[in-house]
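Here is one chain, start to finish.
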Amino acid sequence: MTWFRCAETRPWASMRLFCLPHAGGSAVFYRPWAKEVSQAVEVHAVQYPGRADRLADAMVTDAHQLARLVAGAMAPLMDRPAALFGHSMGAVLAYEVARLLQERGSAPVHVFASGARPPHDRDDGRRVSDMDDDGVVEEMIELGGSDAEALRDPELRELVLPYVRNDFALIENYEHRDGTRLEVPLTAVIGDSDPHVSEEQARGWARVTDGRFALKVMPGGHFYLTDRQSAVIAEIHRALEVPA
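Its structure:
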């Protein structure tokens, strides 16, 4: 099973945008983007194992290993410039994938880190992965996002909870390692009422790259990008300098 879902192939596109989902998320989260993003960009959403059409695939429990697998799977698709967009857990993974790509001589042209604290400032003392099932469900509902609704259904909950818990453990156990420093432009994007990342914390992303840094604050909570999809995509177009 391949690692990427591309809702609309564009052989003529001059650039690829690889999108990494949040904890408990899947590639379908980014499916609506294909209709709105520039024709010059081909969107590939990462499908983590253990969910959706990869339900039978073994889940990955280590963030660094997952980043290596994603970076390896991207190799055949790096025949044109690529950018990375990650939300929440996906932002940290996008950063780690970008480091690996840069080490291998295929650095992305831009990294977008959405709704996340920077890699070196992760520990807020809360461990959702250690909560009981009801606690995990409550956390997901509080965060919002489409996945939360699935957890209200008892049958779906049985399918969804294992990979939701795995993802929370993966990102809560993540530790930033010294090593390759990014040299690419990085844009951090957050919602102004996100309880999990403040504007000051988001500015910390500037410390992980020698490239140009920008911070964009949009109205909304942790899943601000659901309601602000057009504004997020407009920011991507601006940063990548592609026609809308």
